[in-house]
Write the C-alpha cells for this entry.
Amino acid sequence: MSGTGRVPAGYAAPAYGTVPDWVAAVGTVAATLLLAVGLLREIRRRRIDDARAATERRAAEANQARLVSVVFRARGSGLRVECVVRNDSPAPVRDAVPWLSWVDPAGALHVPQTEVGANAPLLGPGETTEMTLSVTERAEAPDASGSLRCALAFTDANGRRWVRTANGAPTAVLDDESQALIRAVRADHRRGS
C-alpha cells in the first residue's frame, strides 16, 4: 500500500482544506502577529513619552526653586551667621527658614538648634532679605576648614516645600523636612563646595 497514494478501504482521506482556507488561516495568524507587535511598540512608546513628561514636569516644578538662593557669612566663632536669601523668581516664596550645619574634623555632621533673628514669612519676586542665625544649644564652634554651611527651606508659589543649600540644587521635601535637609546638607558637604 505504501507508495500507491491510495487510502485503504474504511479510512477517510485527510481533509487539509482548500487553498482559500489555507490563505485565510495564514492571513489571520499574520494579522494577529502584526497587531501584537504594533501593540507592544505602542506600549513602549507611551512608557518613554510618560517618562519624558514626568522628567519635564519635575524640571518645571523646580524652576522657581532654582531661582531662590542663599548666601551666608559667618561672624565671630561661626556660632552666629548672617544668611542672605534672594528670590529671583517671578513668584513669591513663603516660610523661608535657614538652617546651619558643619562637619567636625572627625567627619560628624552637626545641625544645631538655632534662633533666627528675623524670619521671612513672604519673600516677593526680586526681593532679598537678611536673616541672622544664632546657635542656641551648647555646641563647639565649627573649625576654620570652611565646613560651615547654610541651607534654606521654603515653600514655592505652588505650595511645594524645598530645601536649598548655598551650593546645591533644590531638593523637594517629600517626607520629613529635617531629613530632607540632612540629605541635602550631607550631599553639599560631600561635594566639598
